[in-house]
Predict the 3D structure of the following.
Amino acid sequence: MNEITITIDGKSVQTQEGEFILNAARANGVFIPAICYLTRCSPTLACRICLVEADGKQVYACNAKAKEGMSVITSTSTIEDEKRAIMEVYDVNHPLECGVCDQSGECELQNYTLELAVDSQTYSIPDTFKPVQDWGLIHYDPALCIMCERCITVCKDMIGDGALSTVARGGENIDAAFKESMPKDAYAMWNKLNKSLIAPNAGDTLDCTNCGECTSVCPVGALVGTDYQYSANAWEHQQIPATCAHCSAGCQISYDIKHTSIADPDDKIYRVKNEWNYVSLCGSGRYGYDFQNTNVTKDAAKFDAAIAAFKKADTISFTSTITNEEAMILQRLKEKFGYRLINEEARAFKSFLGSYSAVSGQSLYSGNLKEVHESDFVVSIGSALKTDNPNARFAMNNAISMNKGAGLYFHPINDPVINDMSKNVTQFNHAAMMEEAALYLMLDLFGDKTAMPSEIVSYLATFHSTKTVTIEETIDEKVTETVMKKVLNEETGVEEEVSEEVTKTVKKKVSKEVEVDDNRLYDLLNAPASFADTLTKYLAKKEKFALMVGPDLYSHPNSVNCARLVALIEKYTAFNVTMIPNLSNTLGTALICDLDTSAGSYTIGYNTAGNFTLSALGNGDLDMPAINQQEGTLTSIDKRVNPTNVAVGFGGYTLNDIANALGFNEALTVNYTKQLPVNAGFQAVEFDTLPNYYTNAGEEVRGYVLTSISVTVNGDKSVTAFHESAAMGNGIVYLANPVLQFTPFTAKAHQLKETGGLYASAAFMSANGINEGDRVRVKTAQGEIVVNVIADGKIDGEIPYLPTFDTQINSGALFDGYRFATVSIQKV
Amino acid sequence: MHVEPFTDRNVSEHSAYYYVDIENYPVTGWDKFKQVVKRSLKGELFVGLWVVMREMIKFDIHTVKYPLEKLPIGPRYRAVHKLLRLWESGFERCIGCGLCEKICISDCIRMDTRIDENSRKEVTEYSINLGRCIFCGYCAEVCPELAIVHGGRYENASEQRAHFVIKDDMLTPLDFLTAGQQEEYPGFGAITPHEDERVSKTPLAY
């Protein structure tokens, strides 16, 4: 794209060619009012308030593209009249309940009504009765709705659920006299507003992944979190800039805090907000905020016991839901006292990264989610995308819907959410263990065969064969027919039959035998019929390719080979590769800690089981602060080190206190921020200097991005063949979490409290004669557990899954590393 | 903005400060003794007492026999707050909008709200910290519902400040209301006369 210069209100502004005028203005500090527009989504043209004059012509700034030398005027008398009339129309019949409305104080209707100085009303229409609707976590009050359709837009273009749409509003038509008397755009906008209302596609309630992004983008109080209703006012909150602690997306959030009540002055988190123009949250981030460890005091006896345990222990076992600084403390403890550090999933990721580096020569993968957002062909391999990293799913959906893109999704479990994204997404529900085949397919389809090592090219050639298929073709054929026609004999006046020859063109179907290339990888991956044709359609005019690989590959028995294949894909195809780390800080932990494979005799568990347990969940021997009670940094999927801050207080001891008692001397945990290993890509900067915000141009100014370090490689690019016989057939179980859950921390939040079980699709339950709520014995080669069956409408196919968020279910013990296991499931 | 001459912090003879003519304090023991004798025997005490004695024998005195008698106070007097009820229904007028909490310049108002069973905003608790309240009247002025007003109760003597400031104490009791004893507040924020004439009405299509 070319850099161009346009003039807005006499101010010279640099922007990209094809950028919307509104975005150019916002990026350069020029204010143009806009209600219905969402950055990163398609313009809706519902509000029409962003009217500007570009080169003497009235256009909407949200969908008019900037051209070189364009001169934009944001205010003329006609535009001002239109804007004023539009705001008056928005105020028609809007309930005057600002005093109790949850949006009051941050309401765009309030703001623009005041901005445009609407102090009297010219228009009117009879109101209709619109009762409030309860959609579970989300509350909808249609009386307050101004039909900007931002909720519909974000749900479709960003989230991918497409769970909302407009329905008929009912009520009377606008008085015809207004058509003549009021400004044109205001009338058109009112006409549209007066026809529709928002409603869930699924009838009375929402059928979606409950991200709540619709409540976040709602400019008025129509869509609010049910739990937040009437509990506080917007202006009372102190906003704590933070990073979401639940998954590796590392979304920027703000914890909105206020005192608990008159009787209890302690801070409480009331809600989570996000910069919805630049970052979209999932439901866990939005509703799973109160996972703090409360009512903790400094218990010296317990602390002494902890120190004694540390002196006795030889192993520290921990999860990746910790900050970089805590990981650094653990690594320092290891260096000083020789503890073994056990974190299986981070170790798997670390070794995957290591194997990848051995081929690619870089310590880190090349891509990030921003590049996925900007790409037009997205592939996901080895990840249950919507639950492993919801933001990666949003990125894939956003790329496909905004950039006219297409996508491929490789995973054994059929995901209806992925199908809902677009018709230009194909799911490959391949057998478990066939992830390598998917990676080989990437190389086969997109790899530069001239540059690739010849062994790989010849290996890929073994999957190809030519086969003769009979195809039906439609051809045009000329047919000559003799038809009898009645002609009136003019002389006699009698009708006579005359034969006449007519030539017609007829479409005819013929079958024809052609030789086509047959790719056996398609069959191995259960590709849909005629996928080769579909792919040709997908790839038309595609320029930016993004590949996301997920945790299924890290724990894969042949993970080394998978990693090498990923590196080759990055090298020999146009794809940039993003790896999805399993948990919030798996990437940081993998880079900071030297992890061991086997535990010793006495283990300290940090948020996990051990002989002595430190726990932020409140169930251990010594209480620790949860991430919303700590300051520190988290490393995200975007390879960014994001700062997070203390939202609620903590009265107990921290890991730093333990480290200090064991001979270290750092006053604060965040003193370790500048000590993070530079040779792993971190920077030696003070925590307090790390920013955490987005600019008006949408630039992410948060922490810093890890530097990818060059690794010396020996040039060995060999990869091994995969074994078709390793494919796991039916009767397997997966290790994943349901929508809204990631860890025990999400399950602790009061809005997301949930008991785990065996999550199964309707297809699985009917095939096995199991009903929801039945108790079943789940048995694998590693062990067995008895759990309840829970129906999950967001998966399809015959593979059920066990969650990791419920500490009561020791699901990890049923799996031998890999996320799939052969299973027998019996009712008890 | 006008700049006050406070920037000159150098207090000297040419500044606006001047010294009061005060005798020097006695320094030696003898001087101190002389001052005590002079003050004790000069009868200065009776200069003041004379006013009391004179008024005592006059009989047409104007002293208010407080606390038996109290002076009437002005309608705009701002003493301890009251929360009023709606005349018709007896419901609390307070809708929990939080404006008083926001405008309070000494930050002494707090309220707890929740959504009640009828999906209305309910103010479960309301408190004013009278130890910090400066009785400025902003809360009454900003209140859109005339719910919080200043009462006339200025006698703030109790074992605890908290006795004045919990919601139950401030709220008009229901029996008071039914007996018609709730007083409207004509002070800050109350509707001024001729308000109807100044408001332009919203057009309604029904």
